[in-house]
Design brief:
Transmembrane segments: 115-135, 172-188, 200-223, 235-254, 313-335, 342-361, 367-386, 398-427
Keywords: Membrane, Transmembrane, Transmembrane helix
Helix content: 40-55%
Largest sheet: 6 strands, antiparallel
Structural class: alpha+beta
Organism: BD1-7 clade bacterium
Oligomer: single chain
Region (Disordered): 588-607
Protein name: Glycosyltransferase RgtA/B/C/D-like domain-containing protein
Radius of gyration: 26 Å
Strand order of the largest sheet: 7-8-9-6-5-12
Length: 607
């Protein structure tokens, strides 16, 4: 394809056509039900007393997920919202009053209508796209076709799907809108010297911080501008950043004084303020994964989502990310050495990922990075295909091939990622909600103890919230023994006691998000007491992971007051408990299901 033909093709994109494609790709998202933390928000907004919150400065407690109050944490464990192995010091609560207000407004105006809440989030994303396009015009001053190309790459970036679809993640969109508005005002201030723009920039940052702490990432762009493009030089450009630092410090001090903060396992969320060394270690692990995902359109969470069963795959992905990193940085340095404005966008985007390295790699945390990286990619494709003279000394064929690969990735594969991700989120949230409401063999749960042998952690944490909001009965207590990895063996010792062992051990893989054994080990003989039952650690494997558990119940296991379930093809099904002395073992989640159509073929009993 000639440079002229490529320019004509890009020119035909047009903003209305791009928005139409975007709308079609996100149609499943608009029709999707609530997801995960959304149910937690709705319970609190509806004044339901199932989960109590308080003691901090939030409006409704929507982002006070797990607080430091032991009683509240024990309540969440007893209800199955948190797993039994959650460490005593585990808590995280965030101060996002503007995001809280937006969810309150949704609930007051639309009630339990997820479609309107999804549309609300999409409007924030489109507003962000408009702000970014204004910034690109302001800095790069590109021809219309290049601007359309950059806007298309950003709008159709598949990494944005979780940010847009997950209503509870609207805080990131709101924070980004005001943070990049801050960047725009800052640039106008430094170019014109007008202090009114300085006031607007500082005010925008303060508003962005009140929407979500991810707004801190805009500091990378402000720093990159000061080092590369500030009209009054690097030294003076850096000094004026101290005003923004005052706002951030004031926010952090108020954040702490109001009772917000986080203390979790280092595999889940690592605070750079309380665990600086741990943060540096995890940042070195996660930075390559985040950066590589931005260039090759792969989901950032793929490096850990497979769990313990796919640890080899996770290691391979992390290794490939490290191998890609020098290639990406080298390409960026060579391509931008003649254009400091493009260098500003690229390095601002890459550095903006450092603050979010505190959390497990996830697409929803890459929003600030994708802005800078997508601007750079649009510029690079354009230069390689149309303005090749600016990219010497590279050969013509090398430039054409580079442009073709990047164009296919970000104009074909990435929109497919966006569309499939939207469809997946719709299907997954529909499936989780329907299974939680009408799981196989449902009985009246009120007054009962629910024991789930194995279930994905994300599904178990929302089970009771979904049922509560839809007026379904919930148990008095709920226990999840393990996630869906590994094989589980259950022995019935007496009508009040079970012994459970697991081939790979407990508190491993995804489960370590709530307790890292290296930091908070469990000891043989240690007990976790919960309403209706007690868990005792009977043995550990050579790595210190619990291998065998003893469960003592206050109620006779055969009285009908204790119900056993496990997951099968994503559906919770009742499990038939064998007689005393008998046992059952999971084998890829194949259990003796308690229904008339299947006999308990793998349950055995003495005599």
């Amino acid at each position: 394809m000639s440079a002229r033909r490529f320019s004509q093709l890009v020119a035909r994109l047009s903003y209305p056509r791009l928005l139409l494609v975007f709308g079609v790709l996100l149609l499943p998202t608009v029709l999707a039900p609530y997801h995960s933390d959304d149910f937690f928000h709705l319970l609190l907004l509806s004044d339901d007393q199932l989960l109590e919150r308080g003691g901090d400065g939030s409006l409704f407690g929507l982002f006070s997920f797990i607080d430091a109050d032991p009683a509240n944490r024990e309540q969440m464990i007893a209800l199955g919202v948190l797993p039994w192995w959650t460490t005593d010091s585990f808590y995280f609560r965030f101060w996002r009053p503007l995001a809280e207000a937006s969810h309150w407004l949704d609930y007051r105006l639309f009630g339990l209508n997820p479609m309107m809440a999804h549309l609300h989030s999409i409007l924030w994303f489109l507003l962000l796209g408009w702000v970014v396009s204004l910034l690109v015009r302001q800095t790069l001053k590109p021809p219309r076709e290049m601007l359309l190309l950059i806007f298309a790459i950003f709008l159709l970036d598949g990494q944005h799907i979780a940010t847009i679809t997950w209503i509870a993640n609207r805080n990131a969109l709101m924070a980004a809108v005001f943070a990049f508005a801050c960047l725009g005002w800052h640039i106008r201030w430094r170019q014109s010297g007008d202090w009114r723009f300085a006031a607007l920039a500082h005010l925008s940052l303060a508003i962005a911080m009140l929407a979500g702490e991810i707004a801190l990432s805009v500091g990378a762009y402000l720093f990159a501008w000061a080092m590369l493009l500030d009209a009054k030089g690097r030294a003076r450009g850096f000094v004026v950043l101290l005003g923004y630092a005052v706002i951030v410090i004031a926010y952090l001090l108020l954040h702490r004084a109001l009772g917000f903060g986080a203390d979790t396992s280092l595999s889940f969320y690592v605070s750079p303020f309380t665990h600086p060394i741990g943060f540096l270690q995890t940042a070195l692990e996660r930075l390559p994964v985040y950066i590589a995902s931005g260039f090759v359109t792969a989901p950032a969470g793929i490096s850990w989502a497979g769990g313990e069963s796919f640890s080899g795959v996770s290691f391979l992905i992390n290794t490939l990310a490290w191998l890609l990193l020098p290639l990406i940085i080298g390409l960026g340095w060579i391509a931008t050495r003649r254009d400091k404005t493009v260098a500003f966008w690229l390095w601002g985007g890459l550095l903006s990922i450092v603050p979010v390295c505190s959390a497990l790699p996830q697409d929803r945390l890459t929003l600030f990075m994708t802005v800078g990286v997508d601007v750079f990619l649009g510029w690079l494709i354009w230069q390689c295909w149309v303005n090749r003279s600016a990219m010497q000394p590279f050969g013509q064929r090398w430039l054409r091939n580079t442009a073709a690969i990047l164009a296919v990735m970000h104009l074909i594969f990435s929109p497919i990622h966006l569309g499939l991700g939207s469809l997946f989120m719709w299907f997954e949230t529909q499936r989780l909600e329907s299974h939680a409401l009408e799981f196989n063999g449902e009985q009246a749960l009120e007054g009962k103890t629910l024991v789930v042998l194995q279930m994905p952690l994300g599904q178990s944490s929302t089970l009771l919230g979904i049922r509560r909001l839809h007026g379904k009965t919930i148990p008095d207590a709920s226990l999840q023994l393990a996630s869906d990895d590994g094989r589980l063996h259950v022995d019935v010792i007496s009508p009040y006691r079970l012994e459970v062992s697991r081939d790979i051990g407990f508190v491993i893989g995804h489960e370590s998000s709530f307790r890292l054994i290296a930091e908070s080990p469990l000891a043989v003989g240690e007990e976790i007491a919960l309403p209706g039952f007690r868990i005792r650690i009977m043995s550990l494997n050579s790595d210190g992971y619990p291998q065998r558990l003893q469960l003592d119940f206050d109620t006779n296991l055969y009285s009908g007051d204790v119900l056993f379930y496990s997951i099968d093809a994503g559906v919770l099904k009742p499990v038939l408990l064998p007689p005393v002395g008998g046992s059952l073992e999971t084998q890829g989640m194949n259990l003796p299901w308690d229904d008339a159509s299947r006999a308990p073929t793998n349950a055995t009993a003495d005599g």
